[in-house]
Amino acid sequence: MPGDKTQGLTVQIHEKAFGTTPVLGAIRFSAAPGEFLALLAPSGTGKTTALRIILGLDRGFSGTVTLPRGRLGTMFQEPRLLPWLDVAGNLRLAVPTLSDAAIETLLARLGLAGTAAKLPRQISLGMARRVSLARALAVQPKLLVLDEPFASLDPRLAAQLARIVAESARDAMTIMATHDLDQALVVASRVLVLAGKPALLAADMQVPGVGERPAFAASLRARFPFLAATPPTPAEFSSTSG
User: Fold this and answer.
1) Is residue 184 part of a domain?
2) How large is the average pLDDT for residues 130-158?
3) What sign results for the dihedral spanned by CA atoms 187, 217, 224, 205?
4) Residue 157 placed within a domain
């Protein structure tokens, strides 16, 4: 169950513009420990901008963000690995005290066994993205922020990683930006939908139990047509319990 709201995250964005072009409008929500929020919006709507504001990387906005105490774990759309460090070295950038055994265990969970000594150029982009995910999880964050973490992955692997993220960050607050409703419903306890120009928070809804999720997804797709463009739910996703 979600924990004490006073230890949580509070986001109040009034306005964000690039030059004279407004990008984000009224976006207000909070999250407590144990909640997993999926931020759904079409590509180019401002999901990444919202995440950057939450992380404190973009301060040119009107509003306030209150972060929980503790470490932040972040996975951007690009892996952002240092090319001159091997995989283990990139993980130790986040947690210098990580032992070789802990690194091997974490990498194995993400399907990356045997890559600790490899340089980023020696692994695929998909593997590099998983290293980035491993780095975010390694810090044992209080707030985990993920930007399209399963993009370009096949559905089976994406479903496996979604379950690993949910298990590894069970006590954290997690915000995952995505345009894929099916992926969101694997792990999210709430869905936040951004819509319009500038993007506003158009919906903030609790995700129901597994048996009610098909009707829930159908209702969201009818209300927000961009969600209808996502592919049908693969068996690996629809069988996930929660």
Assistant:
1) yes
2) 89
3) negative
4) no
CA distances 12 to 22, 32, 68, 201, 204, Å, are 16, 15, 15, 11, 14
Q: Which domain holds residue 205?
A: 1-32+42-68+177-242
Examine residue 51 and state whether it is found in any structural domain, yes or no. Answer: yes
The CA-atom distances, in angstroms, between 28 and each of 33, 201, 205 are 17, 7, 13
Q: Is residue 82 part of a domain?
A: no
pTM above 0.85, yes or no: yes
Model confidence over 104-128: pLDDT tens digits?
999 999 999 999 999 999 999 889 9
Q: In the predicted model, what is the mean pLDDT of residues 75-103?
A: 95
Q: Is the dihedral of CA 158, 160, 166, 168 positive or negative?
A: negative
| Look-up of token digits 């993205």 | 129
The total number of structural domains in the chain stands at 1
